[in-house]
Amino acid sequence: MTNLTHLTIDAARAGLKKKEFSAVELTQAHLSAMEKGRKLNAYIVETPELALQQAKQSDAKYAAGSPGPLEGIPLGIKDLFCTKGVQTTAASKILEGFIPPYESTVTAQLFRDGAVMLGKTNLDEFAMGSSNTTSAFGNVINPWKRKGDKTDLVPGGSSGGSVAAVAGRIAMGATATDTGGSIRQPAAFTGIAGIKPTYGRCSRWGIVAFASSLDQAGPVARTVKDCAHLLKSMCGHDPKDSTSANMPVPDFVGALKPDVKGLKIGIPKEYRMDGMPAEIEKLWQQGIDWLKAAGAETVEVSLPHTKYALPTYYIIAPAEASSNLARYDGVRYGLRVPDDNLIAQYEKTRAAGFGAEVRRRILVGTYVLSSGYYDAYYIKAQKLRRLIVQDFLSAYEKVDALLTPTAPSAAFAIGENEDDPIKMYLNDVFTVTANIAGLPGLSVPVGLDAQGLPLGLQVLGKAWDEQTVLNIGAALEEAAGFKAMPEGL
User: Fold this and answer.
1) Which of 11, 107, 110, 174 could form a disulfide with 76 if both were Cys (CB 3.0 to 4.6 A apart)?
2) CATH code where residue 77 lies
3) On the CB side of 156, how many CA atoms lie within 13 Å of its CA?
């Protein structure tokens, strides 16, 4: 029998329908691989008993001839999604031991369609980070290594556990969230695909909030088609979320085709930045050439406010985080450090429960929202946000989508950039604009750097046009023929 953990979601669905293997066998293969792959620290909580129970139910549905679209497919669930009866921590000590009495809308829809949960994947604490080194439960290890070098590398963040599980063949796909690039950058670092849909396409209900106007759920998987399978189940209107769009969900899989003939692809000139590594520049040009060869036309476009994107993001995101994280006070749930004085209890609980990066962002956010600074920082950032949105609207009058690099480098070593928060924040330089403007973005693995590490290209699309983004991604995937895997798999 084929190594079941190496199958794509699409191939596994076909094999299950043909009864080449059962959902229980597929799930057990992944549970066994998880035991061997614990060195990656990709999971905070493993749920083998629940997974096998769900797999048995899937086999019964196949036997009855009524399988769901994801019936029997084993997934990792980022530990930011509330899962009924299963600990949800957001990778923070302040939520350790919290068992939600309800299910997030996204996971409820995945389970409705037959998905199997292998466990809750690790992440940067409260999704704040680009390396997955801020988790209270330890660093996630990228399954990839540099040629001839055993140094542990970061998987990217914040969805590092999700991507490490998928790249390391201990999940077929996973849920993730993207606030400033946290689906796309880690997907690029681990040689897999990941899509952030348009803001409002996936419900945020039951997802632990970081920055409410920027957060959006999406899938990571090994191929663009697998992402399309997951996205179809994850999307849909949810009356419990006031930001959820009441729009029909397209058949992302049925309409998927690697056909870019006649499309105009914008190349934003502002993304050609000083100091960009030659390998990233070369890869970007290769992507342009592939799309031209496939019949697309490339057009240089301008997004003049790009240089303000990171400062805008790092005012809005901490401001929203400082508000969202005020609920963790040790009174109603989560960690409590007792004291006779209520204010002292708040202070001690939050000091013990939040890590350094979370505290840093709360302090920055509280500062920019404070009296005397609100107009100077927060209001100015919101005005810049509107100008960044307008840049995209103007560009999309001329083109159908944009092509850019996903990240300014390949994966770096654990601890390499951690002493410099600004350098860490620059990891999001190509991705934050999509969150500021609420647009869909997809990262596709397309090559390896000189050290043998994966690199990705990013497709940014018009609002609600995930299909074109997926189709362009499929064309890049086909042209690149990326089949590389981490050593040892």
Assistant:
1) 174
2) 3.90.1300.10
3) 40
